[in-house]
Design brief:
Layout: H1 3-15, H2 20-39, H3 42-45, H4 48-52, E1 57-66, E2 72-83, E3 89-95, H5 101-117, E4 123-129, H6 138-152, E5 161-164, H7 171-185, H8 205-223, E6 232-236, H9 240-251, E7 255-260, E8 264-267, H10 274-283, H11 289-294, E9 299-302, E10 314-317, H12 326-334, E11 339-341, H13 350-358, E12 362-364, H14 366-369, H15 372-386, H16 392-416, H17 423-441
Parallel strand pairs: 3-4, 3-5, 6-7, 6-10, 10-11, 11-12
Antiparallel strand pairs: 1-2, 2-4, 7-8, 8-9
Helix pairs in contact: 1-2, 2-5, 2-17, 5-17, 6-7, 8-9, 8-15, 8-16, 12-13, 15-16, 16-17
This protein binds NADPH dihydro-nicotinamide-adenine-dinucleotide phosphate.
NADPH dihydro-nicotinamide-adenine-dinucleotide phosphate binds near residues 168, 238, 323, 343 and 344.
């Protein structure tokens, strides 16, 4: 590793010893960026990397709310505004009991590079809370969201910071958050994305991350003379990203044979029936286990990590961080899987990524492969500013073009730095250079 990069990394580890997810993301990014600093020694004089790894600001707050029994509950809220060198902060809100500062910092850090890769003018941020929406009534979720926004509204705005959905935050939560922002500020502005279609949302936003993942996967496969046609595909998760990744993979000729949730996974050799998954997950907010009870021939197995033992050609991890570990990677290689493209953020551990790459599996990291969601969020911001709504086809065509362009950018950055087909290196370098140039232009701020 470049000596300057190593020094900054050592400092980062010493200052944040308990932030394991953030340090994991930083390890991947800084290792990949090392050759950039060999080429640009001038960055050291202006402390560019020290500034790049430190968020602009971190906001942490109490979120009190009253449950259906009249009891006061208290959760912790976060917003990490990581870097706004190329545009307003942009990045989702996650509601999950595993949320802590390390998780939000890793997501915000990745978001800076991802947003840069889209080619659109958006900086990076992320937020959320350790609130668990599972098992809560609509009214409880509403009271939580109202309390969360009562604090958050001070720090966000259409040209300042524009949050969106993530794990546990879909159309329902965005609606409650938006309603509260409007009530407090009196503003009807594009402060959130992922909004409902009748109140400022964009067509194709719901589908964007999953569709974009498959457009990216397809572009990468094409380069290697491959395609989805007739291939077995495993998609982990069964949330927003997973459902629309499975849909597009199927439309492109793949056979999606397995999906999961945090409890376990289902296998359907005939190809997963997405109408059933959507009914269970989007309408009933149920468990994936119910799929096996409803579809003859399908089976269910407890434990979500087992999904990687299902034989496949293409794996699309779309659930959560570190869901694909070394054992999973070994199982994939053993079953001759040739492509892993990340729909989730950092779903593959560092060891698993290395193992896949060393065994010739084409690997596209989440910051490039799942950028379609935030890209269409930025298109939602554009439509809000224009006071216009584009058609589904128009947004989908732009999304397709953006994903093809991201692939070109990461492919040529990897080549330029002598690491052809290493899309981890390509994505980190291509994303970083644009932000770095803007930071240089803005002076030491
Ligand atoms: P959802 O909440 O809609 O779905 C998440 C899925 O992952 C569910 O099936 C869930 O299962 C599973 N999951 C969540 N936590 C865990 C866990 N700890 N262990 C195992 N499985 C888990 O979220 P999204 O689909 O929106 O997000 C999925 C991933 O994609 C995340 O990493 C997110 O950051 C990333 N992403 C999302 C974007 C978007 O536009 N939504 C954009 C870019 C990235 P269960 O229901 O049992 O909890």
């Amino acid at each position: 590793m470049n000596a300057y990069v190593q020094r900054v990394f050592d400092g980062l580890k010493a200052r944040n010893p308990q932030e394991k997810e953030f340090l994991q993301a930083a390890t991947e990014v800084l290792e990949a960026l090392s050759p950039v600093f060999d080429k640009h020694p001038e960055y050291e004089k202006i402390g560019l990397l020290e500034r790049f790894v430190e968020p602009d600001r971190i906001i942490m707050f109490r979120v009190p709310w009253v449950d259906d029994q009249g009891q006061v509950q208290v959760n912790r809220g976060f917003r990490v505004q990581f870097n706004n060198a190329i545009g307003p902060y942009k990045g989702g809100l996650r509601l999950h009991p595993s949320v802590n500062l390390s998780v939000i910092k890793f997501l915000g850090f990745e978001q800076v590079l991802k947003n840069s890769l889209t080619g659109l003018p958006i900086g990076g941020g992320k937020g959320g809370s350790d609130f668990d929406p599972k098992g809560k009534s609509d009214n409880e979720v509403m009271r939580f969201c109202q309390s969360f926004m009562t604090e958050l509204f001070k720090y966000v705005g259409k040209d300042e910071d524009v949050p969106a959905g993530d794990i546990g935050v879909g159309a329902r939560e965005i609606g409650y958050l938006y309603g509260q922002y409007k009530r407090i500020t009196g503003l009807y502005e594009g402060v959130l994305t992922g909004k409902g279609l009748t109140w400022g949302g964009s067509l194709a936003r719901k589908e964007a991350t999953g569709f974009g993942l498959c457009y990216m996967t397809n572009a990468m496969l094409r380069k290697h003379g491959l395609s989805f046609e007739g291939k077995r595909v495993v998609v982990s998760g069964s949330g927003n990203v997973a459902i629309y990744a499975a849909q597009k993979a199927t439309e492109l000729g793949g056979l999606v044979v397995a999906m999961s949730d945090s409890n376990g996974y289902v296998v359907d050799e005939k190809g997963i029936d997405l109408a059933v998954v959507k009914q269970i997950k989007e309408v009933e907010r149920g468990r994936i286990k119910e799929y096996a009870a409803r579809v003859p021939g399908a089976s269910y197995t407890e434990g979500f990590r087992g999904i990687w033992t299902v034989k496949c050609d293409i794996a699309l991890p779309c659930a959560t961080q570190n869901e694909l570990d070394l054992d999973g990677a070994k199982a994939l290689v053993a079953s001759k899987c040739f492509a892993v493209c990340e729909g989730a953020n950092m779903p593959t551990t560092l060891e698993a990524t290395q193992y896949l790459q060393q065994n010739g599996v084409y690997f596209v990291p989440g910051k490039a492969a799942n950028a379609g969601g935030v890209a269409v969020s930025a298109l939602e911001m554009s439509q809000n500013s224009l006071r216009l709504s584009w058609t589904f086809e128009e947004v989908d065509t732009r999304l397709h073009g953006i994903m093809e362009n991201i692939f070109k950018a990461i492919d040529s950055a990897a080549k330029e730095y002598g690491q052809e087909d290493n899309y981890v290196t390509g994505a980190n370098i291509a994303g970083f250079l644009k932000v770095a140039n803007a930071m240089v232009a803005h002076g030491c701020v």
